[in-house]
Amino acid sequence: MQSLWNDQEAATFGTDLLGQRVYTSRLLGRNPALVLHGGGNTSVKVTEQDFFGDSVDLCYVKGSGWDLATIERAGFSPVRMAALLKMSKLDTMSDEDMVLQQRAAMTNPNSPAASIEAILHAILPFRFVDHSHANAISALTCAADGEARTKELFGKRVLVLPYVMPGFVLAKQVHEVLQKTDLRKEGIEGIVLLKHGLFTFADDAKASYEKHIELVTMAEEHLAGRAGVSPATSEAGILHAQEDLLSLAKLRHAVSKVRGFPQIARLNASPEAVGYTSLPNVATFGTRGPLTPDHSIRTKRAPAFIGEDIEASVQKFADDYAAYFNRHAKSQTMLDAAPRFAIWPGKGIVSFGDTLKDAKIVFDIAESTAATVQLGESIGGWEPLPEKDIFEIEYWDLEQAKLRKGPARKVHQGKVALVTGCAAGIGFAIAESLAEQGAQVVGLDIDKDIPEIMKRIGGIGIVVNLTEDQPVQDAIDFTVREFGGIDIVVSNAGIFPKNDPLDAMVQTDWDRTLMINLTSHQKLMNKVIPFVKQGMDASIIFVGSRNFKAPGPGASAYSCSKAALTQLCRVAALELAPHQIRVNIVHPDAVFDTKLWTPEALLKSATRYGMTVEEYKTKNLMKVEIKSKDIGNMVSAMASPLFAKVTGAQIPVDGGNDRVI
Predict the structure, then answer these.
(1) pTM of structure
(2) Fewer CB within 10 Å, N or C, the chain?
(3) Handedness of CA 389, 37, 151, 140 (dihedral sign)
């Protein structure tokens, strides 16, 4: 591990103490082997003038909800040192009182809640304090002989303390040690909390940070010397995932059912991940516990181990979790029993989350955990904290409160939607409405700009000619590989050929229209239905047209293709109802805010009917304009639980058409 300190970069953060604190905090946060997703905390002690001009000693400590990798000045909470030192001398203190008193002692009430380690930071007699959950420290201290090994490695440079609960209990433990130990006189540079993490401190930002790097490097070198080449690493070059996307979709479905909501699933099929899952006895040592107790909030105590029977494996995890809860619960209510990641032998590591962001966070933690657990096991046995201690952290109200602060759940959160023909107009509006309601959208279109277009709504766009078999299959496979499955399919791709009477129509126009407006939809169904059968609240929606029921002269190819598409929908509804998949079709009419309808085309059509453009746009029975977004919102609703018991339906969105009615 190398120091990332750079004098020029440091200067851009300012020469004041808080600016330097921000800089070295970010240096720690840049390295995932030190800090992952909100882990760790840092502080700096300063003297400032308050609103009234009086000098006040403050401890600026990392605020709850901030990540060290991106923290700013506003992410540090200014807490009065006097109050923190008084708290450290109390015999007991409840978590609620600690949080309340820390908030009351802040000079800026608009700052985030101070870290639960604020008292500990305050009592350490140095200006800068750095704390991380370094992988190397976890591997070292979670070894079978971790305490003895740690003391032997660091000697008198660090204090080695047994694990206790974070917050006031930990601060009290360190306070009692400091009554007997003068850190400065004895030259102590850090504190190792067994099975938890590392603290370093100094009066200079660079010195505290670089001591951290030095001590972690010592642990890394010690581990490398003892472990040698690990089995997973040595085999990584020849181990590749045995891809089984349908089984991945089944695994996601099983986990989502236990969780009670659709989950995004991220598969790590790297050689290292596949190698780890293929190690002998990984089912035993890989499920003993997390590399640091804080991770249990994101990952639960352990991952699931997936055997040949996927559903049974997930159910076993749920049963084991319930038993674990019952062994340790007092008055708590059990959280859901679904795993947050899974060891899947020969396939890789699968991470789950309510959102793509959540799944990515678990992905990173799971990847780090696998490497560290493997290292700990190779040097004498991985022995994390006992499950009772993990339970106390997982069900600690202070930690659960962080998760409860999230936004309200959206209708399609966790669902994966595949939308065709969505570069513009109705297709884009559908993709946008689904994304707004939380779906992870993958859009397929022949338009070369579709990747950039889908980025606007946080989706992924793939250039695909939907009449070609392999590109369609590749796009479906990509979607499942990326997100774990498919829950919503909106088959929208289509064209409107030029109006020609039957005796003047060019045969290729008819053939092309039928190929795009009908056959491409059939090809999509053929390839996507096996995955939709593993979807959650699964729904397929076709986009038809008013022309199905009210055709016009000169539109035979378009009208016939949409009529046949409606029939395809009806057959699909009959076939898929036993699988609890809803299949419906929406019939828009007179949607003029699309590329097809230029101002010139609108004026020409309106003139033909003897109307103004505004009259023409509202010529339906309700005299309302139908916009693409109206169709998008309807399709989003049709894919939601509102239509949970509706299949085979044909929904007109046309403001009322007398010929149809």
Answers:
(1) 0.91
(2) C
(3) positive
